[in-house]
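Troubleshooting: if your tokenizer reports a length mismatch, compare your output against this known-good record of 189 residues.
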Amino acid sequence: MKIKLILLLVVASAFGYLFFVPNNILPKFSYVHNDSIEKTKTELVNIRSIGQWEFLSVKSEELVDTVISHTFSNDKLACIYAGTLRLGIDLSEADSSWISPAGNDSVYVKLPKAKLLDEDFLDEASRKVFFQDGSFAPVVLESMAKRAKAKMRARTVTEKNLSQVEMNARKQMEALLKAAGYKTVIFKN
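Known-good structure output:
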């Protein structure tokens, strides 16, 4: 019974202290509402961590053949190679001044050039032998794969495709920065 009485007195004195202490002793809290979001250079530079940003993916197949002549016969091989070429921009290659604020609601952006993002695009596992007569050393198969890659790259990595990738990159970067609160995005060449 004594414990309950002591506990009741402690709680009552705590409430009494809070209600009867002058206002200037207790800390005052206030709430400030700010509609604008401050954007710092560090936040802009962190966009660079996106790294490789793919904007065009092209699946390609290429027929490559070879004939190796021997004294009394010819060895012939024809294979179909497949691969997926991915074109885009690599933000990790951007220089340190690739993005910078221009006032409170504008930003300057200089994107890296569009390119083939991965040189290892050939899917060797999907190689199909179309025709084979004879046997072939591994260097012949490597040579054929290199020729297939070169043909795929020449057909896909064109000025038209690269300019399309750069246009898509600008649109996406502008949408990203406008979502971050910028009203104007100015691209530098």
